[in-house]
Amino acid sequence: MPQTLRFTADDARRLDALVSRLASISRTQAATLIATGRVRVDGRAERSSFVPAVGALIEVDVPEPESRPVLAENIPITVVYEDDALMVVEKAAGMVVHPAPGHWSGTLVNALKGRGQALPQESDEARAGLVHRLDKDTSGLLIIAKTDRAHRILSKAIAERRVIRRYAVLSWGHLDRDRLTVDRPLGRDPRDRKRMAIVESGRAAKTDFTRLARFTSCELLRAHLHTGRTHQIRVHLASVGHPVVGDDTYGGGGARRLVGLPPKRQFLHAAWLLFQHPETGAQLEFRSPLPRDLHESLITVSEMPELIAHPDPLDYLAFYRADD
After folding, report:
1. Would strands 192-198 and 186-189 be described as parallel, antiparallel, or unpaired?
2. Whole-angstrom Cα distance, residue 324 to residue 255?
3. How far out from the chain centre does Cα 87 lie?
4. DSSP letters spanning 66-107
5. Which domains does the chain show, CATH number per domain?
6. DSSP for residue 257
7. Does residue 147 sit in helix, strand or coil?
C-alpha cells in the first residue's frame, strides 16, 4: 500500500522543489510523482512549476519502496570478536550500514553476506543481523547477531537499555558544566525530512554527556546513550548550541580544517561497548581506539604532544572510567 505524507508548505517555491525537500527524495523523483498524479495541493493536481502558497496542504502518495536482492560483496571489514552467536565489528567512517535507495552496494550488510556466513532469517534481508546502527560518517563498534535467537535476545537487551554504548565526540564551544543530560524527544524535522529534530510528538531520547577535556575552541565529551534514535547525539548536542565538530547537517561542519578533519568527516566514534552474551550470559566489553584521522585531529586541537605516541588517547583522557 502506498504511504501518504502530508505537509504544510512553509515557503513559496516550486512544487517539485518543495516535495523533494519535505519528502526527502530527489527532485527528479518528486517531478515523477507530480506528473503521475501522486501529489495534491489543497486537493488539486498541479504542475511541477506550480508555486504553492505558504500554508497550503501538500499530500504525497509515496509508492512502496524499491527492493532489491542483497548482493554478497568482497569488502574487507574489521572483526574484533566472533563466535557462533554474534560478531562485533568496527565500522569505518563512510560505510553505510545497510542497503537502501541510493546505497544498494558497498554496505556493511553486503560485506557480511560476502563472508559467506549464516545470518538471521527472521529480519529483513537488508538488515540481516543488525542489532543497532551507526550513521554513515560515524565510526566504531557494532554488534552483529548470527542467529535468530541471538538477534531476538540482543534486540531486547538494546530496547531494555542493558547494552552500554558510549561514544567519543568533539563538540564546538564549551558546556557550562562537566555533566549534562539531554532528555528531549526526537522525530523527523517537519521542514526537512532528511534531518531529525527535537519534536514534542517524537520518540523519547536521552543522552548523558561527560566532559573529559576542554580545549580552546571545543571539548572532548563522552556520550552515553540511554536510547538509540537516529542522529541522537548529533541532534541533542546541536539543540544545546554545541554541535558535533565536522557535522555538516546540524551546524558543526564549519572550520573543519582548523581541527584537521578530512572532508565529510565528523568527530563521532563508538568507542566503548558492554553487554551480556546472548547464550552464555558472560559480560563482554570492547574498546575501540580513535581511528587515525580522529586521533590526529585530537592532537591538533588539544596541543598535547604526549598524545602523539599514546596508542589510545581516550584511555589517557579517562574515557573508560566507569563512574556513571
Report:
1. antiparallel
2. 33
3. 20
4. P--PPPP-----EEEEE-SSEEEEEEPTT--SS-BTTBSSSS
5. 3-62 (3.10.290.10), 78-159 (3.30.2350.10), 164-316 (3.30.2350.10)
6. G
7. coil
HSE (side-chain half, CA atoms, 13 Å) at 45: 9
C-alpha cell at 284: 563482554
Residue 262: which region, alpha, beta or left (left: phi > 0; alpha: psi -120 to 50)?
A: beta
* Binned average pLDDT, 10 residues per bin, the chain of 324 residues: 76 86 80 91 92 91 75 94 96 91 86 87 79 94 96 94 96 96 91 85 94 95 95 97 96 86 94 97 97 94 85 93 70
Residue with cell 537502501: 100
Q: Tell me whether residue 135 is one of the annotated catalytic residues.
A: yes
How many whole angstroms separate alpha carbon 92 and alpha carbon 75? 12
Amino acid at 118: A
pLDDT computed for residue 67 by the predictor:
66
42, 61, 84, 135: which one is catalytic? 135
Q: Are 220 and 298 in contact (CB under 8 A)?
A: yes
d(C-alpha 298, C-alpha 313), whole Å: 9
Nearest to 247 by CA among 163, 167, 161, 159: 167
Nearest in space to 70 (alpha carbons), one of 129, 147, 126? 126
**Spatial separation of the C-alpha atoms in residues 163 and 26, rounded to whole Å:** 37
Fill in the amino acid letter for 200. E
Residue type at 31 in one-letter notation? A
Distance CA 223, CA 259 (A): 20
- At 131, the amino acid letter reads V
For residue 79 the three cell numbers come to: 572483526
The grid coordinates of residue 164 equal: 552500554
Side chain identity, residue 157: A
Whether residue 172 contacts residue 319, with contact meaning beta carbons closer than 8 Å, is answered with no
Q: Would the pTM of this model clear 0.85, i.e. be above it?
A: no
For 3, the grid coordinates are 504511504
Contacts of 310 (CB under 8 A, 6+ apart): 316
| End-to-end Cα, the chain, rounded Å | 46
Per DSSP, what are the bridge partners of residue 40?
59
R_g of the chain computed on alpha carbons? 21
